[in-house]
Amino acid sequence: MLQTLRNAWKIPDLRKKMLYTLLMLFIFRMGSFVPVPGLTTEAIGQMMGGFTEGMQGLLNNFSGGALERGSIFAMSISPYINASIIIQLLTVAIPALERMAKEGEEGRKKISSITRYVTVVLGFIQATGLYFGLSASIQGGNTIMNFIVITITLTAGTAFLMWLGEEITEKGIGNGISLLIFTGIVSRGPAMIKSLQATLFSGDTISFQSVMTLVVILAIAVVAIGFVVMINDSERRIPVQYAKRVVGRKMYGGQSTHIPLKLAMAGVIPIIFAVSIMSFPQTIAMFIWGQNLPTTGFWGALLRLFQQTHPFYIIVYFLLILFFTYFYTAIQFNPIEVANNMKKNGGFIPGIRPGKPTSDYIARILSKVTLFGAFFLAIVAIFPILLAFIPNLGAVSIGGTSLLIVVGVALETTKQMESQMLTRHYKGFLE
After folding, report:
1. Fewest CB within 10 angstroms: 230, 359, 393, 412, which?
2. Are the CB atoms for 4 and 417 separated by under 8 Å?
3. CB contact set of 417 (below 8 Å; sequence gap of 6+)
4. Global pTM?
């Protein structure tokens, strides 16, 4: 990766794109320290308990700590992510959107435009929820003017981040939205190191137990990163052979290729879906009772079930990730459509008849691959929760979702750099 960065920096065109990307990311980091008018930062930090659990913790990590600081970027790019997921799901369900998606570049532009409008609407709804959730930290109380100022500021912050991400994608290197999330997560590194230092080395002397705990944490981090990289790049390749055909005086086909089925095809989307559902009861409770959540009776018992360390939460969270992995993979990859396209172009899988037998064979292989990927995602997601039961390790914020995003974005950006360098190399050779 470092060698790729060095080689890319030597190419003037790529260096310009890298500098532009860094400038946009710098603006994002500066904006995460600009406070929303009327919000008290200290009260927010005390109210939300450090933002370490549930959707609030995930949102705070994505925003690089902007949520706990009451910044204009407090909601980060999460409304855009939610809007993109909703539009993807509706594309399958609504024929008009499905036709639009098949219109090529023009259709994708229309869908992107719809996604932007949905982002603004979802951003305003989420900003309204944050306003009522943080009502105790608002200076001057719940007034109409405070509501307008705070909700519009938060919505505008999300819209600006959406524009930043699109600018990076168009004029910079990598996927802009992914890089914004990557930057937010990585920026939490110093805070995590400081928390680790305060937990392990709080006294005047360094104990053997603290040193061994640090070694274990580093070993877990290295193994986890290596495991995520391995699974992220792993794929099951189904061989495909194309029959030879003569068109005029030329012969086409005859080549061999493959269908790549990635183990982690759904990415982190199933985890985000599962976290959203598991955080729903506590989010509703916050709207109803504010910070005075019930601790006794039926509602108190129900809310305790949805605490991260409760066995019920861990089991249901695990099962939801398995379900959403299958669900989202089924939306992304259609074996029947793949089989039909292969049949139209004279392609076939050796030993498998074209048509329905081919689609059944691909679906069977996809089901096995998805099962492995689903268990991988679920284990990565619940690993930090299980880590909290171990003394001294529980204070370390090692998020499975964050790890997946950081590794995935780093690999994807590196591959894009290598692809652009390879394109320029062949251009120079041909010229």
Report:
1. 230
2. yes
3. 4, 5, 8, 14, 173
4. 0.77
